[in-house]
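Take the subject:
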Amino acid sequence: MDQDTFFHSLNTQFQDALPFVAYRKPNEERIQALFQHDDELHETKELSESGFVFAPFDDTSKMILLPLAASELIYCDGFKSEPVEHANSNFESALNQKTAYIETIQKAITAIAETDLKKVVLSRPDYVVKDNLEVFEVFKRLLSTYKTAFVYCWYHPKIGLWLGATPETLLKTEGQRMSTMALAGTQVYKGTTDVSWGTKEEQEQQFVTDYIVSNLNTVVEQVSTSERRTVRAGSLLHLQTQISARLKKEYSSLLHIVRALHPTPAVCGLPKPEAKAFILKHENYNREFYSGFMGELHFKTRQTRNTNRRNVENNVYATVKTVSNLYVNLRCMQVLPNTIALYVGGGITKDSNPEAEWEETVNKTSTMKKVLF
């Protein structure tokens, strides 16, 4: 359907207080949406259903599902991206928020020096007072600003409203093949991706890569990793390594793979149990769905040998594959009454500088704040 009809349908679903998700995958043009027919709250425990999953950081909490069987799937192939003009607003965070975050970072550095903890990812909420948010205008700005990210708008009347643009893939599976990425390190984009990285960022990214490969070795085979490269996500740069493998038949359950990956060192730390315990004790707020994961579960895709529609003979041999696309919920916001909560974090290691870590979180929130105005 055309863009106007698509966004009108989204608004109608929202006004009717019915669950939905609208999203665009990285580097794609098509936006799609899943409209649930009623307001029932569905959960998934095994990740075996078909639908869209929205899962929290804490892997012991409920994973929410919009089931394909109880929903309608619609598409918009003609979204017209427009230049985003940002107001010159003051986006300074409160001084007490900075003080508290730096104190927590210092505790983490001490714990890393005195225990087996190697890395811990510390996050914080940043609140923006905003009345009468135009939800779908913000969604359009995210779509225009973050073309290489997974951009989404998710709503359930019994959970709430979330929007975001994440640069990080948790997992993609297609048949017996899977791929993921190790993403870490941050610096501001200044017109080029040909940049230098410090020892701290390179070490942090290597931690993530090594952890993912080590954990996957129990459930996959034929693991391969790409060269580390610099990638752009909006106004920021990150270090990325692509990882691919083949699923072992005895571990072909999606839940096995997700448990091996989530939460990754990029959002939790190393070793995972110690890092998670430190986070739950010291962050002093509930991350909820920030740094959780979301995406398509067991969608069916039809692939032909020849994309030329006139080649009927080859199209007879089309195959149907089951595909899952899951993303880590970063660069996101939660819409609260008269307030927007933005969530942001950074990886702390023994070489971290607390003031620099604070500035990194400020850089990560700056573009997200601008799309609100």
Observations:
- The chain has eight helices and 19 strands.
- Helices lie at 3-15, 95-114, 135-145, 199-216, 254-261, 272-282, 312-315, 354-370.
- Residues 95-114 form the longest helix (20 residues).
